[in-house]
What does this fold into?
Amino acid sequence: MGIESKYQMKVVEGDNGYVLEDVPHLTDYIPHLPTYDNPLQSNPAYSVVKQYFVDMDDTVPQKIVVHKDSPRGLHFRRAGPRQKVYFSSDDVRACIVTCGGLCPGLNTVIREIVHSLDYMYGVDKVLGIEGGYRGFYAKNTINLTPKLVDDIHKRGGTILGTSRGGHDTTKIVDSIQDHGINQVYIIGGDGTQKGAAVIYEEIRRRGLKVVVAGIPKTIDNDIPVIDKSFGFDTAVEEAQRAINAAHVEAQSAENGIGVVKLMGRYSGFIAMYATLASRDVDCCLIPESPFYLEGSGGLFEFVKKSLREDGHMVIVIAEGAGQELLAEENSHARSEQDASGNKLLQDVGLWVSQKIRDHFEKKLKMPITLKYIDPTYMIRAVPSNASDNVYCTILAQSCVHGAMAGYTGFTSGVVNGRQTYIPFNRITEKQNKVVITDRMWARLLSSTNQPSFLSTKDIVEVQKGQHPPTQLLDGDNNDSETSGKQNTSMA
It folds into this structure.
């Protein structure tokens, strides 16, 4: 069934243009809830912390670069432990569910939620919902203990399993009530978070004392507002292996061409950062930047130039790039969707490889050696690297702190290097994309020395100040210059 949210913003306005996009709290709809002293006060691990708890009024700005006369702007609630909690540790019965595609770090997040609940708050009743949202229907659960999850971060995938779709809000909330669950931790992408928002609304409608907290997951790094998504660093690092293999193959043959297809349905962040990190890529093609094959300034001309100058070249292409070219060529292609509502893409890697072969070998009678590599499932199935493991730990701990403090209907995310609680709707309202008029894309073009492939129409629009359709709207902090940066501040 479709997922429709009627999520209502909770906005606090202050002086000088200050706006806090707050997240809901249990007390918004359940008055007179008892509070308890936070167990962290007696936790030896936190005895070294100068300030145990985050001030209730602490917020984090979405935009960190401002002019001297700028208003104070949009803020989110700062994450962290609060002095008072709204759950007695003995009464907490939590559950964790993972949904959507695989991503490095899923097991790390599961592990750290379990460990945080147990070691920091003394919660020992944590259920794992197996098989994504469908697991709520089938009542497939496992008891998650610190001992059980201790080593799972060393494995790829998710020990809970996952699935797409299968979202029946009524059945899910019925199951939550039947199990006596009062904290729900949901790990997944924008579709999953939309589902989490609907689950929160139904729980609120029923007046249940149940927290719904999300941790955003996408290997493509296309979730807005947050600095980056977990698993992205690992994906870029793993993509280097495929690019290196393509470079070795291309360099070892006369007129050698290596083509690597990377993940990126609508956003080309993996392809862009893998290209910048590699330094062996001659051309990077992403969904946000249209390209064409023939004619002056086209891909074929650039390939021919590169082969003449260097004798070989490497092309990286994101899976969502060039789909409009495939659609023009194959008008009978069906617009199928997966269970999450994502359009099933045609294989642009195979298509562009065959187009290059046909052009050079048949049309130009120029012998080439082309090797095509598609590491898609290798990249998303590996365990997370050191950077992502640290990041997952921080996200999970912040999420648990928020849930225990009674916040609900929120996603745990990093904004400008600080842990925050973000309303669901801000995470799901649109997708983050590479801005092709941004400095980061210019850095890539400078690194590869490839043409921009912008059409005459695109160039005229840029000259007139009319940004191409991929330009993000003002107010977005998540431009491509900052999206892939590492932010591991515990604050």
About this structure: The chain has two domains: 11-229+384-415, 232-333+345-381+436-455. The longest helix spans residues 232-251.
